[in-house]
Write a structure and sequence with these properties.
The complex is a heterodimer of chains A (about 500) and B (about 500). Chain A is about 40% helix and about 20% strand. With about 500 residues, chain A is α+β, with helices and mostly antiparallel strands. In chain A, strands 1, 2, 6, 7, 10, 11, 12, 13, 14 and 15 form a 10-stranded mixed sheet that branches. A 3-stranded antiparallel sheet of chain A has the order 5-4-16, with no helix packed on it. Chain A has a two-stranded antiparallel sheet with strand order 3-17. In chain A, about 40% of the residues are buried. The N terminus of chain A is likely disordered. Chain B is of the alpha/beta class. In chain B, the strands form 2 sheets. In chain B, strands 1-3-2-4-6-5-10-11 form an 8-stranded mixed sheet, with helices on both faces. A 3-stranded parallel sheet of chain B has the order 8-7-9, sandwiched between helices. The longest helix of chain B is centred in the last third of the chain and has 24 residues. Classes of the chains: A alpha+beta (about 500), B alpha/beta (about 500). The structure holds zinc ion. The site of zinc ion (ZN) has 8 residues of chain A, from α1.
Chain lengths: ~500, ~500
Amino acid sequence: MTKPAAPTAEPFTTVIGLEVHVQLQTKTKLFCGCSTTFGAPPNTQVCPVCLGLPGSLPVMNREAFSLAIKAALALECRIAPFTKWDRKNYFYPDLPKGYQISQFDLPFSSDGWLEVVDPKGAFSRKVGVIRVHLEEDAGKSMHDEAAGTADTRIDLNRAGTPLCEIVSQPDLRSPQEARAWLNELKLLLVYLGVSDCNMQEGSLRVDANVNLHIPRPDGSLAKTPIVEIKNMNSFRSVERALAYETARQYDEWQATGAELGTTPKQTRGWDDPAGVTRAQRHKEESSDYRYFPDPDLVPVTVSEEQIAAAKALMGTPPTVLRTTLAEKWKISAYDADVLVNQGRELVGYFEDVATRVGEGKVASNWLQQDVLRTLNERGETIDEFPIRPDALADLIRRVQNGDFDTSRGREIFAEVLTSGRSVADVVASLGIAAVGQDELIALCKELIAANPKIVADVQGGKEQAAAGLIGQAKKKNPNVNPAKVRQMCVDLIKALELPTRTPEA
Amino acid sequence: MQPAELSAVEIVAAIRQGDMTAVQCTEAFLDRAARLDGSINAFLKIDREGALETAAAIDARRKAGKPLGALAGLPVAVKDALCTRDLPTTCASKMLAGFRPPYDADTVARLRAADAVIVGKTNMDEFAMGGSNENSAFGPVKNPWDLSRAPGGSSGGSAACVAADMAPVAIGSDTGGSIRQPAGLCGITGLKPTYGRVSRRGLVAFASSLDQIGPMARSAADCALVLETIAGHDPRDSTSLTAEVPRYSELLEQPLTGLKIGRVAEHYAEGLDPEVRKGVDEAYAVFEAAGATVHDIELPHAKYGVPTYYLIAPCEASSNLARYDGAHYGHRAEPGTGHQAEPAGGHRAESGSSQHFDSPLVEMYCRSRGEGFGPEVKRRIMLGTYALSAGYYDAYYAKALKVRRLIRQDYLDAFAKVDLIGGPVSATPAFKLGEKTGDPLAMYLVDLYTVATNLAGVGGISFPCGFTRGGLPVGFQLQGPALAEPLLLRATDRFQRLTDWHLRRPKQTA
Ligand SMILES: [Zn+2]
């Protein structure tokens, strides 16, 4: 059900494939017992294994393997019954063994897909996943250029952290699609608890491959050389870098006519402040990693039972949740999309509130209009949000009961948020007491008596004239519900007129 | 009582019974080492102080009536390829000169837990690459039977120190024959267990799929005693076997009646020294006298063992040794220009060159590795790097893996017919130091009869079966199926009850 991309002014098709590395959320590293917690002082989370000391041996972390299986299953991949570990050999100071333990020709999973649907209907794209494999991360090199000595400092805390590498097919057709797909992928992996996908902490890294297919007048297709873009630090950078690169490639093609196959694959780095990609040294591309099976590790076999068990524990992925949430709570697909995209915790919050108030739509409105806005302003996550679902539900129920109107409810929401007091407390302290029926009737009678013009208008058929009474009612008693005042006044005026009314027939 | 005249089994019993203290015993061996090792060079480090301290603590515990380990007071020399927490571990390489690992190898930890006394670290071919011990960066080991001859390798120091009674027991490692060949050339008993029987954790890796640690001692009974302690599953070595460890020393009694020993036609190929052949033939006769029968069998792919081994082992080594880059530990070259002449004793490959380096980092790598590794290590790293390179992988490494599978199948087929396979350990007795150093290919052939055991992942034992007229020991090898250590030890023990070759001592070290 892949729809063609919206027609654009561009005289070419953009072809994008992504290579995503995500750090798995395990407590310990892939082949040793060291902690993976981010932010510890340099070289404090290391042991002989991840330091690559002589005689040290790796032992696979089963938890990492299970998480990786979960990710692959969610990406609809085929899980290999037999998989092995390979060594990728190269020299670099942040790679203490001189090789990285990775997977080469027998990755544990392959041939999957992940679909991204734009909620506004701009595109819908089912993107193939070529393979997902597991590997260990390298350490971090910090080049101390300020000192002027070109010193490099190495932190090996990250060395050996489990990484899943996800390689997509070149199925994406625009920078916007690439960004949306990455958002969808991140959402999925975060939902499954596979990774926190925090780009700032390096737990999600993206490289993009891009080239253009340009139709020639004779109907044949010119393909520009594929460029790999690195150093993108946010999904926004990915989108910007791809947009830049697309334009650059078109310009270059017009200038040189260079096509795929005539030049080696180029790597370009994204310079975010400058907003440009820059060519990197070609040398890296020609390296021969001399992959071979790691003799320190035994192959891993995965049975159908293990796959079934992993599936059973997987939880609901976002795509399914969008549909079920919309159906269960009778909210629009758009609303479900907004809620689901905020993450599993927010969906939990929403369902809690909706259950308590017995209605999805009103809960969804409060979440989208009030809660999400407040979270953004305060830079908080839903777990940190001080108004818990029971309190919000209490507030919504009072509005539903007509104790006060929505705008008054918003004032109470704000007060609960800043004071940290309960809804009931705030309602009481603001002097908001539900206006009783007798009180309301007395007030409305008073208003009718004082406003003969409005009464006449209403009697003349202009019911909307009753709205003119609301402001006065609020002055007399700020707690009145405007809708109720209006309705009560109309009812009372109509009752007045009854005795004098002459049947028309 | 002269501890040097006792077997390991007797030493352990004597100390347990109080006939001798651990200190007396340790001191006796240390004194011999102090007296003899100047001419043999079997040790890279003798830890007199540490050993005597351990021995005294064992004596104190015995006196206090506290429980003692299975090897209480037994002096053990450990090949310098095994990590030892408080002793340098160099693999006889300049690259690791002065390196002190922060941990014990699993084998060393098990020895310490059994109250063995680690007396020192033994010399070896650099990173266990070699068959003569001449590749040590710290000088060759001399064969105690003839100091002008090589002890074999790579565990030459371990073999020589047992042969010269500088330790009753030594630990070696065997990647293609490195326990069995020096044991054969030095007239002692050496066991290479089934791959995975002894944990490799803490053994500095040469070729991970082939490396195996094993005991070297006077007799099979002594090897059995030590294997009981060092064998066993290690959850921190993924290739370690989980099978239960039998009480090897209690399984020696059963006679050999009905045992079928295979004799391989390929073992009698050109190059087999007539005196070795004679020793081997006589050994078969001893086994027959003990009730075993000898059967001719075939190992059709055995002839591809050496080329297969010299692809797989260097490939793995080229990757295993990549970590010695000067960046984190080990030898790092001083920052230099890259143009200066090498200091005296430097390696030809580097000297006089005026190389250009891409970056200071690459220069540091090249110079550190150039200075730190000896020529044989460099040769194997280059062989392995080449064989794994794009375009060559299929022709070399992948093909070698296929042949390895065929060799393994040969062994499976053979063990369907016989219980053990006999034969020579090496084609000749100990050769002269320097005799083969100019010819790497001739040196590689010293592993002719031993590499296939490692390729097949099975076990093998080597022990003396005679002497040449010139007084050099001749070794016999038995190979068994996976986990057949009880049978290998029992057959050898039976042989040693019927012969006294293993009790002979070299005159030079009397
Ligand atoms: Zn670690």
